[in-house]
């Protein structure tokens, strides 16, 4: 699977918190603070339009406003909460490829992509597939 990074809050077990409110492992299927990560059809299924959970090929490629302040010495402009951590999973090139069961990476540039469902599925199934990757994520801020 491709190597992907995402800035997320972590739980006591050093794994990402699963939640659909942003900056966690999940997607916003309905607007949260005016932001929505995926579009839903009339049946509540995730529209297959390459929208999903935002990721990058390196934590340094994340937008500066998503990089924790404690990494300012390494990444100028880092300004998000130090409660966030840069998580990674996978070990191959950052390119369109399966990520896990039911999930794939869709790159829209060399520094950004979205984890999306492979098939038309209800939002709850997509969230569950994302949550099932929880144990594969590790903090990687080197």
Question: What would your notes on this structure say?
Answer:
This protein is mostly beta strands and 142 residues long. The protein has one domain (4-139). The chain contains one helix and seven strands; from the N terminus they run ββββββαβ. It has one helix at residues 123-131; strands spanning 4-9, 53-55, 84-89, 97-100, 103-109, 112-117, 138-139. The strands form two sheets. It has a four-stranded antiparallel beta sheet with strand order 2-6-5-4. Strands 1-3-7 form a three-stranded antiparallel beta sheet, with no helix packed on it. Strand 5 (103-109) and strand 6 (112-117) form a beta hairpin. The two termini are 20 Å apart.
Give the number of DSSP strands: 7
Shape, per Cα inertia axes: globular
Q: How many structurally independent domains? A: 1
The ordered string of helix (H) and strand (E) elements is EEEEEEHE
| Gap between N and C termini | 20 Å
| Helix share bin | under 10%
Rg value: 14 Å
Low-pLDDT residue spans:
none
Mean pLDDT across all residues, rounded? 96
State the helix count. 1
Q: Major sheet, described briefly?
A: 4 strands, antiparallel
Structural class: mainly beta
Strand content: 15-25%
Strand order of the largest sheet: 2-6-5-4
Blueprint (SSEs and pairs):
Elements: E1 4-9, E2 53-55, E3 84-89, E4 97-100, E5 103-109, E6 112-117, H1 123-131, E7 138-139
Antiparallel strand pairs: 1-3, 2-6, 3-7, 4-5, 5-6
